Amino acid sequence: MQQTVTPYLLYEDGAAAIDFLTSAFGFVEVMRSHSPEGRVWHAELSFRDGHVYLGEPGEGYRNPKRLGGNTMSIHVYVDDVDAHYAHATGAGADVRGEPEDRPYGDRVYHAVDPEGHDWFFAQHLRDVPIEEWGG
Question: Other C-beta atoms within 10 Å of 3: how many?
């Protein structure tokens, strides 16, 4: 069996998160289920070979934006980071850094979703020996 890691993200408004992630970042909604109260209990989104799960934990939950700090970052590889950046920017994403080449061989940009989760989108351009970039 292939081993994978799937992030499970928590949102105060799961439906809005799904709308944003599909329209701005290109995720595809795979499934969504609702609690008896109508909250998004569980949803699954795909992007290429990867997935993210998300849900609304309820009243006591506060997202990173409301808490005033970052709780984690998600790193996603895309085929064309410049095109992805242009699409996300056009869809109103809060972009915190334009695409830039990094010394380890990736081209990367940073965006934040409406609830404060950090997203890094990257395209691998070349293999760079670790001794050349100091990692």
Answer: 4
Measured CA to CA, the distance from residue 19 to residue 14 in angstroms comes to 9
Domains of the chain are: 8-57+71-133 (3.10.180.10)
Q: What's residue 1's pLDDT? A: 54
Q: How many CA atoms lie within 13 A of 30 on its CB side?
A: 14
Would you state the pLDDT for residue 94? 95
For the chain, list residues with pLDDT below 50.
none
- The four Cα atoms 41, 46, 49, 50 give a dihedral, to 10 degrees, of -50
Instruction: Kindly tell me the sign of the dihedral angle through the C-alpha atoms of 19, 23, 26, 30.
Output: positive
Q: What is the pLDDT of residue 135?
A: 61
